[in-house]
What does this fold into?
Amino acid sequence: MNEESKIGPVSLERITVIDALRGFALLGVLLIHMLDRFGYFDGNITVNSPVPELDKLIQWFSGIFIRGKFLSIFSFLFGLSFYIQMERAAKKGIDFRGRFLWRMLLLFVIGMIGTSFTYVDILTIYAVFGVILVFLYPLRNWALILIISLLLLGIPNLFIIGFDKVTTEQSTEDIPLSLIEQSDMKDVNTTEEQYGGMNAFESKTFLETAKENLTVKTFDKLKHQFVYSGNGYLILSLFIIGFMVGRLRFFEQAHIRKKRSFILLALFLLISLFALIIIKVISPGEDIGLFKLMIEGKDVPLIYFAVSFFRNLNTIGMAGVLVVGFVILYQMGGVRKYLDLLTPYGRMGLTNYEMQNIIGAILFSAWGVGDFFGNKGVTELFTLGLIIYALQIIISKYWMKRFLFGPFEWIWRSGTYLKFPPFKRKKMQI
It folds into this structure.
């Protein structure tokens, strides 16, 4: 019996709350990418907004509750899905690690295609981290917690920046406020500063844009993720946390251990608030950014790494509040029927994510209609993101009634097993 027949074309044991939660996570990912114009952005453009005060309110709300948090949930769910696949295969006597490595190579290729449309596509990084998860799979939880701690403390940054560039001295004139998620506190119109002005809106063809996205902008993205900030290490930490939560079988037991969910909700909220308070206390000086600090050849104050850790802690805490809060609502019968509208969307998560990037590229690129949408205000872009999301929900529901997989999911699965699984649902016999 081959692996495909053992595992089966479609799992009958899907935990639907995970699919719905993935659909929920993609809402926040889409909205933030809309506000950032999917990377096609010139900070010098004139924004024509009819409601500037509402723009500021949405910016504040997005910075506190959306930016970084929903991508964290999406990353967490990837680690959780990794565990589920490995565990279910193991129960059938299959070592799925080799197949999963091949699966990550295919995801990397899909991510490269997505990156050709917009460099903000994260799947190539996900594919590399997926490979790392395979090698972390045998480790016990205490070892995984140690790795997570080192990542969140910014130890990899210490090695990359260089220990000789780290100082314990503090100058209130030039100590930057944070190491990661600086965009949370900035106007969306300064996004290009995170990448050193790499997002200038220029007249280019699709092929020219794709070439730049796959080369120069990808390199700059990696520098931002792993050198100028700790975002990449936070994502890897969330992969591992998702894997560990899978081991603890939280989602499988959520419907029978509701009290635990409320305790976790309160705990994550306290963690988030505690981290925010600590950041306010220990953050001196002006937020000039690690990038500016490094290009000017200045030493990096050690306080950077303390602030970075607590910012990571705040992001994880707030993401935890959203995840557990969603699970609690999902267990309520009157609410679940509405949240279940996100289940088809989440089952097509790969397809919907890449379609978001393709649509975003069309809306904001020079080869698309970026000259029209590029100068829209925050409120207009936020509303447009909600409309796109609603349309994707409707299409996903229609699609999953007729097909077993989303288009990208089917292609990915076909490549994984090197055979074509059934695609269309069989018609019910009356």
Residues 303-330 form the longest helix (28 residues). The CA atoms of residues 43 and 193 lie 9 Å apart. The two ends are 33 Å apart (CA to CA). The longest strand covers residues 166-167.
